[in-house]
Amino acid sequence: MASTTPKIAFLRGFRDGSPFFLVLAPFAGLFGVVATEAGLNVFETLVFSIAVIAGTAQFAALQLMSENAPTAIVIASALAVNLRMAMYSASLAPHFAGAPLWQKALAAYATVDQSAALSLILYDQEPEMSRASKMAYFFGVISVAMPTWYCFTLIGALGGKAVPESWALDFALPITFLAMIGPMLRTPAHMAAAFVSVVGALAFGGIPFNMGLLIAAILAMLTGAQVELWLSKKVQADG
Description:
Layout: H1 6-17, H2 21-37, H3 42-52, H4 55-66, H5 71-81, H6 83-92, H7 101-109, H8 113-125, H9 131-159, H10 172-181, H11 188-203, H12 211-238
Helix pairs in contact: 1-9, 2-4, 2-9, 2-10, 3-9, 4-5, 5-12, 6-8, 8-9, 11-12
């Protein structure tokens, strides 16, 4: 709504982001468990989550580190997993134009799947929102995700050995991404990129050091861009 104030927008973001607690808590706890079992101490595990704040990239990097993969491979794989952040940033940038530098810097750090996905969906639905309200909504969403990620990483690191394996906390990762990606598959380009990423990840899964993910991510982005280009040309030709 055009009359939505930043305070109302923040509370709305907090409300919309709150359900992610149910998946982020076990996901972060699982990372804390895995990281300490891989040899990191509690402090290193917590700093890892605070500095990176990207669950899938953290798991990918941790696995490769435990396999003694070359540093370049660890960095490349983590960057490949996080390439979607660059697309999120490009999509969010026009909405945050004119915001103070400190807000942009904080938003850049806090751009994760949850904050980007919910924000972009709302901005498309309500383009009349003011820049201040858009920023407030974004921070409302992340005000749930960030503390949850930090706190449960610490909890997992401190008490991970007491968690029974039968709890299977790794269910949180696929459920989180299915919940976020589903509503965003709105165009043929989105669906084509998603399809190619799945096929590529399966086809190249046997490549050492998870390099198959890097290949799948690149192929998916190229596919999405090409489909978008074809559709644009088709619209121009029909018009």
